[in-house]
Backbone:
């Protein structure tokens, strides 16, 4: 079912302005807020007050920052806006999963997954995606633009379960490492003491493995993430054989899995930060014991987990989900070889919120 948000009292007044006319406050660090306060000749303590309103109280308008003087709010509002994006619709699954739709120029989706006391948000980082994975609705939609930090953080702050969230996964629409600067900016706001104050252990970033840079001599986005952030990493692997993987994930040719694994094995995942591998199971394509054995060989010596996912049919595709008996045999083969493997439960499939099914409700219904 779909629900339109018309009156959401807890969100306060929605700040409306022409997109791009004013600079956004949401997504700025405390140091950046201090700089802008200095530029505007505002009291130095105003920066902490603004950060508190943005990341703790999560207001949608400068007008609501009531411990700032009217003059300070007026000066701020001349150049800035909060940059909040409110959800337009939500779809509710039979299993309690909720999918939220945000209008960020084109539509993006965030998915809230409840599991007893755990509330996980699957967040989007781009409008569409460049990676072109043939089994993914987002990839088939094409690329329409990056989300900025304010649009990413809005997915966390302005849903009904915002205060209940315990974990976040950057596994929604888009390739997070293709928009790394804004993703890292959002993660900093979520984990900094002046921000939300989450532990990085509550956040996982999923990537196909963007392991090279377009700028000669510059380290890859994957390495930048691993060097600069303590959040967990999940790699969308799906096939251990490069030629076969390229048929499913075209960017394998530019970002080969072999290089991704070489980079990952240089880092320590024996402590608090974890690495896992997502493996969607396709009938006759990647579900044989030959694939399982190659996966074991690839992951040897690496402390990790493999999440097996049964393919969710997205229509108009040659891919077919593996039979459960085949998936169970594959899982058993990995476990007997010492690889931790689990079959991920499918959530929200009836509202097209499961893995690979996100593309934007209104975009899909046009």
Residues:
């Amino acid at each position: 079912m779909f629900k339109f948000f018309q009156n959401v009292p807890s969100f306060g007044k929605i700040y409306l302005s022409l997109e791009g006319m004013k600079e956004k406050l949401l997504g700025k660090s405390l140091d950046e807020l201090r700089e802008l306060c200095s530029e505007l000749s505002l009291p130095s303590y105003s920066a902490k007050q603004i950060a508190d309103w943005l990341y703790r109280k999560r207001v949608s308008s400068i007008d609501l920052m009531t411990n700032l003087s009217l003059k300070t709010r007026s000066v701020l509002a001349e150049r800035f806006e909060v940059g909040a994006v409110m959800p337009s619709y939500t779809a509710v699954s039979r299993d309690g999963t909720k999918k939220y739709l945000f209008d960020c120029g084109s539509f993006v989706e965030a998915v809230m997954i409840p599991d007893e006391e755990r509330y996980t948000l699957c967040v989007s980082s781009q409008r569409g995606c460049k990676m072109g994975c043939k089994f993914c609705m987002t990839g088939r939609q094409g690329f329409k633009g990056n989300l900025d930090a304010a649009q990413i953080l809005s997915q966390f702050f302005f849903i009904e379960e915002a205060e209940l969230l315990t974990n976040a996964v950057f596994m929604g629409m888009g390739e997070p490492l293709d928009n790394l600067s804004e993703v890292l900016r959002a993660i900093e706001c979520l984990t900094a003491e002046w921000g939300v104050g989450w532990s990085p252990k509550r956040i996982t970033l999923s990537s196909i493995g963007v392991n090279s840079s377009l700028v000669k001599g510059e380290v890859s986005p994957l390495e930048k993430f691993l060097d600069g952030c303590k959040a967990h990493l999940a790699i969308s692997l799906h096939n251990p054989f490069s030629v076969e993987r390229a048929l499913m994930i075209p960017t394998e040719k530019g970002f080969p899995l072999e290089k991704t694994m070489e980079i990952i094995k240089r880092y320590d995942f024996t402590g608090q930060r974890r690495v896992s591998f997502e493996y969607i199971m396709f009938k006759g394509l990647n579900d044989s014991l030959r694939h399982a054995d190659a996966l074991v060989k690839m992951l040897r010596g690496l402390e990790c987990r493999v999440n097996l996912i049964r393919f969710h049919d997205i229509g108009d595709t040659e891919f077919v989900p593996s039979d459960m008996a085949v998936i169970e045999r594959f899982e058993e083969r990995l476990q007997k070889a010492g690889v931790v493997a689990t079959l991920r439960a499918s959530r929200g499939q009836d509202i097209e919120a499961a893995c690979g099914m996100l593309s934007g409700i209104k975009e899909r219904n046009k």
User: Anything to note?
Assistant: The domain at 87-365 is CATH 3.20.20.70 (TIM Barrel). DSSP finds twelve helices and 15 strands in the chain. The CA atoms of residues 6 and 71 lie 31 Å apart. Residues 1-19 have pLDDT under 50 and may be disordered.
